[in-house]
Amino acid sequence: MSTAKVLREQIASLVRQYYREQFSNRTFNPEVDLAHYAGRVFDAEELCNLVDASLDFFLTANRYAEKFEADFADYLGVSDALLVNSGSSANLVALTALTSPKLRDRRLEPGDEVVTVAAGFPTTLAPILQNNLVPVFVDVNLGDYTANSDQLRDAIGPKTRAIMMAHTLGVPFDLDVVTDLAKKHDLWVIEDNCDALGSRYRGRLTGTFGHLATFSFYPAHHITMGEGGAVATNDEQLGRIARSFRDWGRDCYCAGGESNTCGTRFSQQFGTLPHGFDHKYVYSHIGYNLKVTDMQAAIGCAQLDKLPGFIARRRANFDRLMDVLRPYEDRLLLPRALAHSEPSWFGFVVTVREDAGFTRAEMVRFLEANRVETRSLFAGNLLRHPAFQTIPHRIVRDLVNTDIVMRNTFFVGVYPGLDAVRLDHMAGVLGRFLRGERAAGAAV
Q1: Would you tell me which of 137, 214, 248, 341 could form a disulfide with 172, CB atoms 3.0–4.6 Å apart?
Q2: Are residues 230 and 110 in the same domain?
Q3: Do β-strands 160-166 and 188-192 pair in parallel, antiparallel, or remain unpaired?
Q4: What total number of domains does the chain contain?
Q5: Within this chain, do residues 152 and 125 fall inside the same structural domain, yes or no?
Q6: Is the pTM above the cut of 0.85?
Q7: Catalytic choice (36, 185, 211, 221)
């Protein structure tokens, strides 16, 4: 065995020892510590992979990135998965791919409409605007917070070319309606699956229904690389186009370290370049550099192995909170999923009813003051934010429920880091408030 290999094994052993000393014995003190809404859950394997990748000193995407892309595509059952540096970049790459001239008369052009919702995260909307497309907003249902199916049908007009929406907080939107509309009107579909890794609809994983799907590996999500995301597709042409936009806009699709995958590196004609110009330096799109480092991918490889257990924990934690809050349905609208769906829950979302006797602000202040972390359902209504008040857009009917979400909705965590002690603390604080205790405690 080489000296370098022996040293790697010694380093790995020390990293495992470091994990045990630094991270494995942390406890939760409900008098001091927060019950977070989300967070990274890891063990020594993530640290070992991270250090192992750093010892290669390749730095940019390499063997771990290739492994993750292959394993993630296998998990989803699709042909292509490509890593990017965030879920937001995944949304940008996926939507921008549909503007490629390589798609000929199917490409999205400025002024084309894309159906979406305003009750969401801004990076689902931003790529639509950044590509000079027009968002068409539909309202959401209360309880599942996904797009209203009747309004989806009404949203389709002569300029509508695509649907791009998120499976909100892990709840699949109505994929029967969306796929039917896509077939009937020849629409592109992008599933923003950033909050829903592991969710299923009619037994099939979300992120596999649309032409493209996006994923986020930020620490709040189902698995993490710190920063990171992915685009997935089962269409070889879309996969190559998406990689092109990720990788500077180049036409070449060789993997790192390869030089002539197509076999015609020096024998093609592109634009007005000289015949045979090096294909590795031909650019067919106005692209970006949105790749990950191999250190991030190394963490992701260890996380992906844990995904089934993470999903099971999220569902179990969700069920525990449902048991706690079900007696208070007269004051809180509790979360639900659409028929035929199995959410991989991102959070436990509630809407305070108008006649509850208290406001969302009062409930959130109490929870936060008693160390239960909360979050709004993202932007509430994107159209009411300064950045989006003057954008070109169309609204189907109205956004009544979206405004209710803005005023009355929030969520708490169900992530795998919430163990029995933390869940007991959350249950106790929720129960105290709902039984009438209103003193918020320490200022927040």
Answers
A1: 341
A2: yes
A3: parallel
A4: 2
A5: yes
A6: yes
A7: 221
